[in-house]
Structures are given as C-alpha cells and as structure tokens.
Amino acid sequence: MEISTVGGSNTLSQGMPGGKILGKDDFLKLLATQLRFQNPLDPMNSTEFTSQLAQFSSLEQLSNVSAKLNDLLLYQNSLQNTLTAGLIGKGVRIAGNKVLLHGTADLGFTLAQDASKGTIHIYDSSGRLVREISLAHQTAGYQSCLWDGRDSEGNLLPDGQYTFSIEAFDTSGNPVNADTMTNGTVTGITFENNLTYLIIDEKIKVQLSDIKEIKGGGA
Q1: Using CA atoms, how far apart are residues 15 and 193, in angstroms rounded to an integer?
Q2: Quick one: 7 and 77 in the same domain?
Q3: Are 41 and 103 within one domain?
Q4: What are the pLDDT digits (tens) for 121-162?
Q5: Sign of torsion, CA 82 83 84 90?
Q6: Side-chain-facing half-sphere of 60: CA atoms under 13 Å
Q7: How far apart are CA 187 and CA 9, in angstroms?
Q8: Are 69 and 154 members of one domain?
Q9: Which pLDDT tens digit goes with each residue over 90-115?
C-alpha cells in the first residue's frame, strides 16, 4: 500500500488490478471492515496493522498540509488582486506588440545592443502591412518611435488597435535582438481562471506578469 498524490489530493494506492485509487475515507472504511471480519482466533498481523495506521496518519497530515497551502494560495491571490487595483490610472510599459492609434502612437522597443539601422513594420487588425518606418542608428536599451498614424501612401489611418514588429542590424549586417513594447494607461482589471489581467487604454488585455515598468501617472 503506497501513498500518492493525484489531481492535487492525497490518496492511497492499494496496488489493485486496474490501479484503483483509495482516498483516506475509503481507506478508513476498508480498515474498519477488515477489523470487523477478522478471525478472532487468527487476528491481523500486528506489524501490518501498525504500518497501515502509520500510513493513514501520514495521509491525514498530507491532507492538512494541502488544505493549508490552498488557503495560502487563496490569500496570496486576494492580496495580489487588492494591490493590483492601485494600478488603475497608472502609466505602464509592457512586453507586447499591440499599439493603439489615437491620431499618433508611440512604438516602443528594446535593443540588446547598438543597431546601425532597422525597420518597424506596422500591421492593421487583419494583419495587413500598412506602414514601414526606417530607423537610423539606435543605441542599446529602450527606444521609441512616434508613428504619425499614416500608411505607406501618406493616408491617415483610422484610430484603433494595430500590431508592429521590428528588424534591427549591427554595422556588420548581423541581426540585433529587439523586443517590442507597449505603452499605455491601466484603465481596468479583470480576473479570469485565477489569472490577473490589466486592461490598457480600454482595449488591450495583458497579463500582470507582462509589466516591465510602472510610471507615476498616465502614459
């Protein structure tokens, strides 16, 4: 008889055909039945009985530990949700390639090293390339480029959500690692499947773990 953990709950495995799993309540009933029907002239082996009781005691302790860990997790989630509410109205910088156009848009990115040139590619909600912006020399670290909201033909594009990517190269023409960033203001918070999401500028939903920087006021 072995103690195992299945699906987050502690159980006892009897080694029965088909790998049947017994919970602690089932184990206690089985033990009581075994004591009830044992032969008084040939009682159960005391060593085996003691071993089973020890395993049951260990199972009970594991169950109590599991319950306390679940309570701790619920407390941590509650505390995190309370603290997260303080981010509403704050400007944030997050990892991601989404950007909201309101006349203009700030396209942020970080470079792993200096780049001699680069190109920003901007796409509409359908994934169609609408603009390419050429970049001159950029130093390593965080950089940004202001998009005037126009497409490649100079036409003003409608406000809304767009995505962008960046290609960068060093003086030898080798690719430079670049990560796109999104700037915005936290306008709401939502909780789904035990995860906390921030709503940026009422449109973009991101995970709390994606935040790279929190600013004092709006973005």
Answers
A1: 35
A2: yes
A3: no
A4: 999 999 999 999 999 999 999 999 999 999 999 999 999 999
A5: positive
A6: 9
A7: 39
A8: no
A9: 889 988 999 999 999 999 999 999 99
pLDDT in tens, 16-57: 445 555 566 776 777 677 767 766 556 555 566 666 666 666
Q: Whole-model pTM? A: 0.59
Distance CA 27, CA 13 (A): 10
Which of 85, 113, 146 terminates a domain? The answer is 85
Q: Identify residue 91 by its one-letter amino acid code.
A: G
Reading the block at residue 138, the tokens are: 């950029």
